[in-house]
Write a structure and sequence with these properties.
mainly alpha; 15 helices; 2 strands; about 55% helix
Length: about 350
């Protein structure tokens, strides 16, 4: 939701197609409803209206209480539908599982934030607990399930159960459309009005199962967010670079490979991962602030172009280029502090 609201600042840009598609489910569902004129009588003019119409009141993604307010709202919704909310215990084997999961993600070249990794693991560990597979009141066996479009969980579940076969229990993994089909078939209640196949087809088509692949839009929107209008020159320049790379790839014999990032996207992904590392002096927050300051336009574009050359010549961005960029950011930040 937070990423969706930050991405929404880009939706009215007339060159948004140059930035690539988004995989954000909220944005894609909003676009689906809008393009098919499915808002009905609701007075929804933009994405913010759409979120307000859902019942959320705090629509400022940078507000300090945004996460807390959204969680409180979702808790109310779940409780209204009789959905129990659980709070995770401190699992004694959590750190061992975390290392296994991170190694697994590395083997797939899949990048996730630390928060996403921890959230994944808490859910996986909870669902794999054999004690949860028995209804304490009736003694009957129950079948926990994980609803997700991310199909990389299947293989990790298999690895986890193979390595720790006497410790963890099997749990199901379904994407949303398969889960709805399962529920309808079990209840023999096939109702086309519940959710249409068109919605699922649209959502699944926009969810790239190779989640290492990210569009330029999905990469820069969480960083730039509401400063998009101030950074039109930078965003437009990056979009132009991406469009030129896309058109060149499309003209080659191999064509566009949907499982591979374009060079500009690869540079930005590597850069973001670099500044997320605890070993660097410049924090990710400092990097984000630097990236959003239009005064740094020339330096950012120069760095990205050098990074693209690295990708072309070495298939990766060189560490010395990243360190040099970090040093430039640190120097500028220090100078700004002295001026203040």
């Amino acid at each position: 939701m937070q990423k969706a609201l930050k991405t929404a600042y880009f939706l009215e840009l007339d060159f948004i197609e140059d930035l690539g598609d988004t995989k954000n489910s909220f944005i894609n569902y909003y676009r689906y409803l809008k393009s098919n004129d499915l808002f009905g009588s609701n007075n929804i003019l933009d994405f913010t209206d759409f979120i307000l119409d859902l019942g959320l009141e705090n629509v400022d993604p940078d507000n300090s209480s945004f996460i807390e307010d959204t969680a409180r709202y979702l808790k109310t919704i779940f409780e209204d539908y009789g959905i129990e909310i659980i709070y995770h215990q401190n699992y004694p084997d959590f750190e061992d599982l975390r290392r296994e999961y991170e190694m697994y993600l590395m083997s797939l070249n899949k990048v996730k934030t630390r928060t996403a990794i921890l959230d994944d693991l808490r859910l996986i560990r909870y669902l794999a607990d054999p004690n949860l597979h028995i209804d304490l009141e009736t003694g009957e066996r129950i079948e926990p399930f994980f609803c997700t479009w991310d199909n990389t969980f299947y293989q990790f579940r298999q690895k986890m159960l193979t390595k720790h076969k006497d410790k963890y229990a099997f749990y199901h993994i379904y994407n949303p459309s398969k889960l709805i089909n399962k529920i309808c078939l079990e209840r023999f209640n096939i109702n086309s009005n519940i959710l249409t196949n068109d919605i699922f087809a649209y959502a699944e088509a926009n969810y790239n199962i190779s989640s290492k692949v990210k569009s330029l839009l999905d990469i820069i929107a969480p960083i730039i967010g509401k400063t998009a209008k101030k950074n039109i020159r930078l965003i437009k320049h990056l979009g132009q670079i991406r469009r030129e790379q896309f058109e060149y790839q499309a003209s080659t014999e191999e064509g566009i490979d949907p499982n591979i990032n374009l060079p500009i996207e690869e540079v930005l992904i590597d850069t973001i991962n670099y500044f997320h590392s605890p070993d660097v002096k410049v924090t990710f927050e400092d990097f984000s602030a630097f990236f959003c300051d239009e005064k740094n336009y020339e330096l950012i574009v120069s760095f990205i172009k050098n990074g693209i050359d690295n990708i072309k010549n070495h298939n990766r961005i060189e560490k010395k280029l990243l360190k040099s960029f970090e040093a430039n950011i640190e120097s500028i930040l220090n100078n700004n502090m002295h001026k203040n």
